[in-house]
């Protein structure tokens, strides 16, 4: 197997594109693909300031590295969730992220949630009805809220997350199987800024998980291999397995599934998007001033105030 570009021995074969690359040309291909997606969806420019959500894992560190190599002004934000019960997931991922930023001279903001709000994510979740077994919904809520708040406070032009094609396709699969029209109206790789919400972009939305892992390994990025202990047995992982079976049978399936959805969304298949955004802007949290659907406090303030 030879590299498509230089005839050297290939180190990776991209079945869905039917091409193979050597290390150097694969790393270059990843940067070109990412830049293409940024341009295609008019995500952001080199003059704008970006806040990248980093977890210490392969996707976020690969994306941060690529944005840096492409010349974007990308700072990192690491949220320490305080998940250290079964393994040292949070402490270790904080260390991988810190070292990555230090080696490249990149600006990293870290927030320790327990130090800031008095409780770790599992402790906060344990006080809620459903969160005592799995803290994922509270974790998602806190991460979304703080990422947005810190981006607005820091006057960043956009939030960048490393959701890859496997993540997006699995989320889409869940939304389609439940016909969650509200979510289906919002799963665009670029969400423009609205009152109280920063712009959000997903430049890896067309990059397979396998490709971002290969990028991290081949470019020598040290990332955390262990997953969060709470991700075990999640619906998202189960849906990824189903989609992997489809992809094995039919290389390129995930790309077709996701790009087909984006075409339908653009054609106006899910008009709920505007309606729910308008509803949200009517009310404000009494404590933090963020738009909220409920009266009084927003869901974040209710969770941390208990
Ligand atoms: S970090 Fe948080 Fe995930 Fe862990 S507790 Fe669940 S949501 S699984 S991306
Ligand atoms: Zn080559
Ligand atoms: Zn609030």
Give a quick summary of the entry:
The protein is of the alpha/beta class. The chain is built from 13 helices and 8 strands. The mean pLDDT is 93.
Task: Describe the structure in your own words.
This protein is of the alpha/beta class and 306 residues long. The protein is globular. Strand 3, helix 2 (58-69) and strand 4 form a beta-alpha-beta unit. The model has no long low-confidence stretch (mean pLDDT 93). It has helices at 23-40, 58-69, 89-104, 113-117, 121-126, 136-153, 165-177, 181-184, 209-218, 235-249, 253-266, 272-281, 299-305; strands at 12-14, 19-21, 49-53, 73-80, 108-112, 158-160, 190-191, 199-201. Helix 2 packs across helix 9, helix 7 (165-177) crosses helix 10 and helix 7 (165-177) packs across helix 11 (253-266). 48% of the residues lie in helices and 10% in strands.
């Amino acid at each position: 197997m030879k590299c498509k570009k230089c005839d050297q021995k290939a180190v990776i074969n991209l079945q869905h594109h039917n091409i193979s690359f050597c290390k150097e040309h694969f790393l270059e291909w990843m940067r070109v693909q990412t830049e293409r997606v940024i341009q295609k969806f008019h995500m952001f420019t080199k003059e704008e300031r970006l806040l990248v959500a980093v977890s210490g894992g392969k996707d976020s560190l690969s994306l941060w590295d690529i944005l840096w190599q492409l010349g974007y002004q990308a700072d990192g934000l690491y949220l320490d969730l305080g998940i250290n019960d079964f393994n040292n997931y949070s402490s270790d991922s904080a260390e991988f992220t810190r070292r990555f930023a230090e080696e490249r001279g990149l600006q990293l903001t870290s927030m320790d949630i327990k130090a800031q709000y008095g409780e770790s994510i599992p402790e906060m979740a344990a006080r809620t009805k459903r969160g005592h077994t799995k803290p994922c919904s509270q974790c998602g809520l806190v991460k979304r809220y703080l990422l947005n708040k810190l981006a607005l406070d820091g006057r960043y032009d956009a939030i960048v997350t490393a959701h890859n094609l496997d993540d997006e396709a699995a989320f889409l699969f869940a939304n389609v199987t439940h016909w969650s029209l509200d979510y289906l109206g919002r799963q665009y790789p670029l969400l423009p800024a609205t009152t109280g919400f920063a712009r959000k972009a997903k430049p890896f939305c067309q990059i397979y998980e396998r490709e971002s892992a290969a990028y991290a390994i081949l470019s020598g990025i040290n990332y955390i291999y262990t997953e969060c202990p709470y991700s075990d047995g999640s619906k998202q992982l189960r849906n990824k397995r189903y989609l992997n079976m489809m992809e094995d049978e039919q290389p390129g399936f995930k790309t077709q599934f996701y790009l087909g959805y984006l075409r339908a969304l653009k054609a106006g298949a899910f008009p709920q998007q505007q309606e729910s955004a308008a509803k949200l802007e009517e009310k404000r949290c009494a404590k933090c001033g963020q738009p909220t659907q409920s009266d009084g406090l927003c869901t974040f303030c209710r969770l941390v105030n208990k």
